[in-house]
Amino acid sequence: MTTHSWQVWAIYMVLAPNLSEEQVLKQACPSCDATQLCNCSSMGLDFIPPGLTGKITTLNLAHNRIKHIRSQDLQQAVNLRALLLQSNKISSIDKDSFRSLGKLELLDLSNNSLAHLSPEWFEPLFSLQHLHLQGNSYRDLGESSPFSSLRNLSSLHLGNPWFSTIRQGNFEGIELLDKLWIDGGRLSQYRPGSLKSIKKINHMIISIKSISAFSAIVRDLLYTVTWLEVRKTAFSILSELQLLRVMSSSFAKKISFKQTLLTDATVPEIISILEDMPKLVEVEMIDCRLLGTGQWQMQIQANQSQTLRVLTIEKLSIEKFYLFTDLHAVDGLLSLLTKVTVENTKVFLVPCSVSQYLLSLEYLDLSANLLGDQSLEHSACQGGWPSLQTLNLSQNSLSDLEMTGKSLSHLRNLILLDISQNNFGEIPDVCEWPKNLKFLNLSSTQILKLTTCIPPTLEVLDVSANNLKEFGLQLPFLRELYLTKNHLKTLPGAAPIPNLVAMSVRRNKLNGFSREEFEGVQVGAVHLSLMECHRSLMVSLLCALVVLVMLVLVAIGYKYHAVWYLRMTWAWLQAKRKPKRAPLKDICYDAFVSYSEHDSDWVENIMVRELEQACPPFRLCLHKRDFVPGKWIVDNIIDSIEKSHKTLFVLSEHFVQSEWCKYELDFSHFRLFDENNDAAILVLLEPIQSKAIPKRFCKLRRIMNTKTYLEWPLEEEQQEMFWFNLKIALKS
């Protein structure tokens, strides 16, 4: 045993007669508290700590040294929903170890040393939805099905480098799966029909080297899988691809290739198979490798798919990309595509003939490539991309804004153009643009000064992260303006942009008002004082001897933000007098989300999508979306916290630097952080030490030292567990 494990055992033996079960567990695992989450990961434990009770719903014992699970270890944890035992050294489990876990929904036994799987382990787990068994040492699944009792199973991940055999009946009892992931690098013995018992699989991930075994699996799943994802498979031998002809009858709607190998000899056959699939809508290739230059050894013989609409290629490695051909062999297969992404693939030219065949294309992403001004002119030739509405050319080699606009000016349907992270520098006074362009992203393009080259039709303009010192354009239709990270000293005038609704001016050098007071506030909600709007007039009046005393008082008040602090004090007193909890009828949201603007991409595009599209969905309150326009932001914060069941804090380095996040934390203190309230949920988006938190966040420092928080994992496999824990916390 490790030193820590001996200490835990000694404490238990000496103090157990005099301590409650909760106190014993607290000694063994200090992070276990009353929040129902018990995080004992990475503590060097050799055994499951004693004292587990029915209060715990999530138990994290990952990254320890546990070797054996005994029948009595989990006997009292009858309300456990998630049990995380990954990355231990577990080699044996008593047959009735999980007999009390009838409510368990997630079990992670991945990356251990299990040499076999026993059906007896899983028999009591009739509520289990997610089971992770990958990364162990078993070579097969046994003679029968280990999963026959798991009628509610939704996702199953199994396999390891030694996994070699799947037998008939191994999946009996499973009828519907949202995700099935088989990691079978050495899987060579597959009994046909073994997977036929599963009637529907939404997402099938298979990592396999044997083409014959892969073909047999696909044959069993022709009408079962909606999304088939193939990983780490080499399609390099043409004769082997005849075995894949069966795929042409598959009803899959999406095919993904990740970390696969293709050659000039095999690409035509694969394209032919994909084009024949009767219901295929989307093809995705991510982090793949192509050995060749597009010189197909045989002409592609394929009928154009009538269903394929979306093609995504990301990080495709072509060693001799500069020798790649003009792709004339696939011209006739492109006309029905509506969305194409070719990202980070060293594309330096799209042949004009290819562009002209993309008749239905509405969305095109060519970001992070090598397109220059001349090559863009050739790629966007006359007749090319006639239906295009959205074009992303960010992170390329464009340098002439006038030429860029002219090359795209014939695209009459183009509405959104992203040419950020190029290098334009100085721009001319006159440019030609698509006549219906409404959204333009010119952020991080080294622009020194904006001119009338910018199209007047815009509704959204992003010129963040440039070197702008002023903004004086006349844009009558503009509704959103992003000026973050420039060198502005004054705000743009209101008259040239009369329809502006939202403006971001963070990280500038504004000196006309207190930046902390107005950053992130909608334009319509900002009310500047008379002195801020008419400074010269006020200065001249205040200089008069008659109002000398008034001048002194106003100057002191302005310097130390007296009005601001008075309003803050009044709001503080109002919050403190209000009841701890609002009536249930006034609760509108499951959670109010407090986060820094720097973390908005993760919150709004990842977390919100995961939670609000869950079943059942959660209702989240976000300041950008749900705050009442025109209402003071402090009142918005207080009202939103009162109308939310929980408050979710997304913690990061940016969070602790934000004054608004501090105010949200302060106002929530009265109802969230008293002794008997667990309405606060902390999500740690990036590692941050409590000692690194500024002293003004004293409440946050205390909370992080006393309450369990959820950490966002970078590994894709652990993110499912994170979402599960977060949903449990929101429901509690």
TrEMBL record:
InterPro entries per UniProt: Leu-rich_rpt (IPR001611), Leu-rich_rpt_typical-subtyp (IPR003591), LRR_dom_sf (IPR032675), TIR_dom (IPR000157), Toll-like_receptor (IPR017241), Toll_tir_struct_dom_sf (IPR035897)
* Molecular function in Gene Ontology: transmembrane signaling receptor activity; triacyl lipopeptide binding
SUPFAM superfamilies found in the cross-reference section: L domain-like, Toll/Interleukin receptor TIR domain
What pairs make up the disulfide bonds?
Answer: 32-38, 352-381, 431-453
Note the topology in the membrane. Answer: Single-pass type I membrane protein
Gene Ontology CC, one term: plasma membrane
Localization of this protein: Membrane
Q: Does the keyword Glycosyltransferase apply?
A: no
> Which parts of the sequence belong to the TIR domain?
587-730
Q: Which UniProt keywords apply?
A: Disulfide bond, Glycoprotein, Immunity, Inflammatory response, Innate immunity, Leucine-rich repeat, Membrane, Receptor, Repeat, Signal, Transmembrane, Transmembrane helix
Ranges that cross the membrane: 537-558
Task: Say yes or no: keyword Hydrolase present.
Answer: no
Per the UniProt entry, what are the Gene Ontology biological process annotations, in alphabetical order? inflammatory response; innate immune response; toll-like receptor signaling pathway
Could you name the domain of life of the organism this protein comes from? Eukaryota
Q: Which SMART domains match?
A: LRR_TYP, TIR
Concerning PANTHER family, the annotation shows:
TOLL-LIKE RECEPTOR, TOLL-LIKE RECEPTOR 2
What this chain does, per the entry, is described as: Cooperates with LY96 to mediate the innate immune response to bacterial lipoproteins and other microbial cell wall components. Cooperates with TLR1 or TLR6 to mediate the innate immune response to bacterial lipoproteins or lipopeptides. Acts via MYD88 and TRAF6, leading to NF-kappa-B activation, cytokine secretion and the inflammatory response.
Family (UniProt): Belongs to the Toll-like receptor family.
Q: What is this protein called?
A: Toll-like receptor 2
